[in-house]
Design brief:
Elements lengths: L2 E6 L6 E2 L2 E2 H17 L3 E7 L11 E2 L9 H9 L4 E7 L8 H7 E10 L6 H10 L1 H5 L5 E5 L2 E4 L61
Parallel strand pairs: 1-4, 1-6, 4-5, 6-7
Antiparallel strand pairs: 2-3, 7-9, 8-9
């Protein structure tokens, strides 16, 4: 079964400066995809660019959850857990809805933030750092496994950690009653204390003699 790949914020054809993106950007994306999946991949492009070139994208709309964006809503519903890899090429990090990307990715799916054709991985890492607040909000959705490469956390299911159902605790063994102590012998009353008779006779205290002055 072919691996499905979605490229966001990028056309697959159309002029960019003096050259067509099919000669500059697309070959670099193809090379990156092949490094992960080989030749067995289907790559689709989604962007909200103006319809200058009909063949420029496979899907033309903004991927968000805004009210009235029926095309995006239908796309998300039809492609839930569908893609093995989603590439964000030069996408504005601060404007991305990472819960949508998480929903579109299949189990153990990958997300790669790129800047083809000119921006290096280190330049992109700097852009990711500038969008740290947005990325921090998505930490419960993705694990970082490489430079600008993230893996979907399947347990998250698009929910924050505090919203996850708690795992049920293991049933404890039934409480055992403490073993009753052995019966002690009944307490015997002791005989009343008897005063012992002194062998020596008690001598009365003799008064001291007074001395005359």
């Amino acid at each position: 079964m072919s691996n499905k790949v979605l490229v966001l914020c990028q056309r697959k054809s159309g002029m960019h400066g003096p050259r067509d993106v099919s000669e500059t950007v697309v070959p670099m994306i193809n090379e990156y995809v092949e490094s992960h999946f080989g030749d067995d991949s289907v790559i689709e492009y989604l962007s909200d660019v103006p319809p200058i070139d009909d063949d420029g994208v496979d899907y033309r709309f903004s991927l968000d959850r805004r009210a009235g964006n029926h095309a995006a809503a239908a796309f998300i519903e039809d492609h839930t857990q569908y893609y093995s890899l989603i590439i964000l090429n030069t996408c504005p990090i601060m404007l991305m809805d990472f819960t949508i990307i998480h929903q579109l990715l299949a189990r153990n799916g990958l997300m790669y933030i790129s800047g083809f054709p000119k921006q290096s991985d280190f330049v992109i890492a700097n852009r990711v750092y500038n969008g740290e607040e947005k990325m921090a909000a998505a930490r419960h959705l993705f694990d970082t496994i490489g430079l600008n490469l993230y893996k979907k956390i399947d347990d998250g299911a698009g929910k924050h950690q505090s919203c996850k159902k708690r795992q049920s605790c293991k049933k404890q063994k039934p409480y055992k009653k403490r073993q009753s102590c052995k019966k002690q012998k009944p307490y015997k009353k002791q005989k009343p204390y008897k005063k012992q008779k002194s062998n020596k006779k008690h001598c009365p205290h003799k008064k001291r003699k007074t001395y005359k002055k």
